[in-house]
Amino acid sequence: MKRARIEPRLAKESASRIVALVCLLMMGAWAIAGPSGLLAWSENLRLLDQREKEVAQLSVQRDELKNRVALLDPRHADADLAGELLRSNLNVVHPDEMVMLLK
Q1: Per-residue model confidence as pLDDT tens digits over 26-68
Q2: Residue 54: C-alpha distances to residues 47, 65, 67, 75, 82 (Å)
């Protein structure tokens, strides 16, 4: 019986090919299932939509607060808003006013 003899050069080449193949497979798996891979893409899009809605809501809230600050400017304060704040925060009312509670 003759034994098949593997040359050392062929063994080294096949080992280097196997290592290269394993590296390529790992990089491919990372590209698909990694934190910024294809599987995470839909999650990132969902989070982006959620953040855009939150930014729109906060922009509306910021605009309302800017308007309120502009109305309370000491140089030309809005009389209605100033009266509303006095009544609600300091509990100040005129003797001839009636308070109606709405449910």
Answers
A1: 999 998 888 888 888 888 899 999 999 999 999 999 999 999 8
A2: 10, 16, 20, 34, 31
**What does the alpha-carbon distance between residue 76 and residue 60 come to, in Å, rounded to a whole number?**
24
| Closest among 97, 91, 93, 71 to 82, alpha carbons compared | 71
Q: Are 78 and 72 in contact (CB under 8 A)?
A: yes
Closest CA to 81 of 61, 65, 101, 102: 65
Is residue 91 left, alpha or beta, with left meaning phi > 0 and alpha meaning psi from -120 to 50? left
Which range marks the domain in which residue 57 is found? 9-89
25 part of a folded domain: yes
Q: Length of the chain in residues, anyone?
A: 103
Residue 1 lies in a domain: no
The number of CA neighbours under 13 Å toward the Cβ of 39 is 8
